[in-house]
Structure formats: C-alpha cells, structure tokens
Amino acid sequence: MSTASTTPNTSDNSARSTRRRWPRWAVIALLVLMAATAGWWRYRVTRPDYRLARGEEAIRTNDWEQVNTIIDTLEATGRTDEAHLLRGKAYYARKRPDLALAEFDAIRDPSPRYLTAATQAGRCLLDLGALKEAAQVFSLVIEQQPDNVDANRGLAAVAYDLGQLNTAIDHLEVVARLDPGDGRPHRLIGLIYKDMGQHEKAEAAYREALLRGLPSPVDGEVQKELAESLVALHRFADALVVLDKLQAEDGGTIASRASALRGIGRSTEAAELLDRAVTRFPAGPLYRIRGQLALDAGDHAGAVRPLERAVELAPVDYRAHFLLAQAYAGVQRGDDAKREAERAEQIRQDLDKITELTKQAMERPWDAGIRLQLAELSDRLGMPEVARTWRAAAAACRAQLP
User: What is the pLDDT of residues 317-334, one digit of tens each?
Assistant: First the structure.
C-alpha cells in the first residue's frame, strides 16, 4: 500500500472538523435567537395595546366571541381600564351608546386611557342627544389635547346641531388640518356657507372637499351642491361643466341644468329637458323653471299651468308664488295675482326672519327661545327636519346648568 493512500490529508480533516463544529455553533445561535424571539412574541401578544388592537379588529369583523374572550383576558390580567374601553367600543358598534357610555365613564383620570375613553363618551352623548354634556366632554379633551381630531369633530357636530355655525366652521377647519386626506369637513363647511347664502365661500369649500377625496356617493352629492352654488352665482357655464361629470340625474340636478341652460340663452333646450323630466321627477322646482321659461317668452297663459303645479308641489316656494302672480296678472286674473303676491311676500318675510334669527342664534349660542322661533318658522315653511333639529337644540339649551 502506498504512502499516499494511507497518510491522512490534514487539510481535508480540518475542513471536515470545521464542518462538524459549525452546526453546533449554528444550533446554539439558533436556539438563542428562538428563545429571544419567543420571549419578544410573548411580551408583544400579552401587551394591553396588542390585545386592544386585536379586540378592535374583532369588532370590525363582528367576531363578538373573540371580543368577549379578549375582554375576559384583559380583566383576568388586571387591565380593567382596557376591558372597559373595549367593551364600550363593542356596545357602541352594536348601536347601544347608553351601555357604551357607562363603560367609558368607568375609566377615570389619571388612567392613560382616560382621554380616549372621554372622547368615546362624548360620541355616545352626541348620539343620545345630550349636546351640552357632549360639548363639555369634548372641550375637556381639547384642553389637554388641542389636536385631538375626534374631539374637534365632536365639537363641530355639537356646534352645528346647536346652530352655532361659525363655531362649527372653526372646528371643521381644525379637523381638515389634522386629517388632510378627508374631504368631509370641507363638504360640511360648503353646506353651511350654501345655507347661509355665501355661495362663493361654499364653492371654495366644495372644490377643496372634492380635491381631498370623498367616498361614493358623497362625491356626487357634493358635485350637485357645487352646481347649485354656481347657478346661484350666475356662473352657468361652470355649473354645466360640473353637471356633465355626474353619472346619474335626479330632479335636483335637472333643475340646476335647466337653470344653467336658461342662463346661457339655451332656453329651447332647457324647455325640452324639463318637458321630458317632469314625467319622471314631478317636482315643484322643475315646474317653476318651466313656467319661468314661458314667462321669458311672453307666454303668460302658457306659464299659468306649470306654475300652478309648482305651488301645488312646493307650497312654500317663494319664487313659484311670485312668478305665478306675474302669470295671473298677464292673463288679467287680478284677484288671483293679488293672492299669490301676498303669499309670496309672507314667505319672503319668513325667510328673512329665519336669516335674522340664525344670526342671533350664532351670537347667543345657548338661547333656547331663538331656536324655538326658528323651529316654528321652519315648520311653517315646510321644513320639518330642520324644525326638529332646532327643537333639539332648544332642549339642549334649556338643559344648560346655571
């Protein structure tokens, strides 16, 4: 046997030895890493924040068994504040703000969950119609966290419901600054300005809302409201550009389109549009605009019937009564013209009174009497939902502590 075949290869043995030793080190390192990872994982999954997040995700998926399991675990480990918070959120998600409120109220200062619970409690109070109490809670949160977006949203809602429109706008602007990806604050700002007749400011707010993004179908509603403000500003071509972007039409959009077409001299097209539309959408404004087109053409007799239909469908439409008075006068129906003119004047006075009282309501934020007057006028003008809002605001004002 040759020497070459029997002498060990030192280099090969060293490599094999190294290969044998390396797995042992690798195993040790792996075991250390696994132990560290397992310890970190146990630490993470037992943290209250992690359990809260899991519970909130279970609420979003309506997994109430999982929610209850997590609440039980939180309570068993002594995390009672987190248990109250999660149970309150579960109640709120299930449309029980009364039960949720009791859970949130159980969390007291100086708990680190206190401000979160207080914000949630404010939302419950808002849903329960306790506007004054909601305002107090949201204000308390903002004193300590001025940039709390949910508390600012809550105060904006309270101010809006109370008719404190300037205050509502202030808080909505804060919300828009804190949450630049949400177009809804500017949408509500636009609605407020539009209702106040400040259509230039309404246009700016609506355009900002659309720029920031809105969910469907809210984006379409905002386009419609923007078009209405543009028509009110006599910017008829701009209104048509906006309306052309809409995929669906209803009575309101057709009224805006017909008014815009009339405004740029396309009256024949407007009349044809309305004649087709009134069979699908028999609404007062459509008949009013159709009657107005007839008056524009000097056809007083042709204006009477659509304007009579307009006041039948919308008995508190000032412009419909005013135009009908003109149509009656043009066909020598003097008594009827006088009656319609008097009715139009009564409606105009009521509208002017609403404008004045709304200004007073903003200046006197806790005056119940003003809000009751606004409720009565709203009922008289055929706006029952607005009347209910003003009555709720009056009730909240009466509940104010001395």
Answer: 999 999 999 999 999 999
Distance of alpha carbon 135 from alpha carbon 156, whole angstroms: 9
For the chain, domain boundaries: 46-128, 364-402
Distance of CA 187 to the CA centre of its chain: 8
Tokens matching residue 275: 């004649």
pTM over the 0.70 mark = yes
What angle, 0 to 180 degrees and rounded to 10, lies between the N-to-C axes of helices 149-161 and 184-195?
20
Burial class (CB in 10 A: 0-12, 13-18, 19+), 128: middle
What tokens appear for 360 in the block? 């007073």
pLDDT digits (tens, 9 = 90+) for 258-289: 999 999 999 999 999 999 999 999 999 999 99
The 3-state DSSP class for residue 235 equals: coil
CB neighbours of residue 177 within 10 Å? 12
- Taking only the tens place, the pLDDT of each residue in 52-85 is 999 999 999 999 999 999 999 999 999 999 999 9
